[in-house]
Amino acid sequence: MPKKQTNIKNYFGAASGGNLSKTNPQKTLDSFFPKGAAMNTAATGSTPANKRKKNDHSKETRKKTTKKDDWKITVQNDHDEEELQTQVEYYLSNANLRKDKFYRSKIISSPHGNGWFDLKYILSAPRIQSMNVTTARQVVEALKSSEEVETMEDAEEEGTFLIRRKNNKKLPTFRSQSDYQRRRRYDSFSDYGFDEGSHGFSGYHCDRLLECGVKPWDDDAGYVLGALYDY
Question: Any transmembrane segments, and where (predicted)?
């Protein structure tokens, strides 16, 4: 122990110009490390506490921001625009509006007129929500190339978008389920088939074809293929 004390004493004495104080060690240390001198932390690999705290906080903030931005990007792009366009076009198609009371009522009773109604009613559809579509702008982007429906921003309320059938196309006649049952008409393929002497499938029939199926034939115990037309 005496040998180590002598070495330390000699070391500090030499570093401080031989002014090692026995009665005031702090004075000796102050002379060895002058006030305002920065400690060299490279040798120890440590960082001052105040700087370390600031750096750690900045790093944590960057991580949170990155995660938030990534989440936004995922939501915006996590859907198929072509599928979204097809689904929205179906909602406003003749096939759906013949029987869909909800969208018919929104079009007819909308205060915007001319077939326009609020796009939020499209966003509220369960099928649309299942596609991770959360904003009206996503729908607007998907419908830019649509030839069946069109959108526009409400001139009176910024950020609100409206939608309608292209060129305010006339609504089809509403059909209840009972109407469908009464109007159901099956024609055998022998009447409109491709056999010699048949009428054939004209454009008139193809445009109005609703479904194909089978039907018991009244004059026979068997079944015949048939087609349901919209007359």
Answer: none
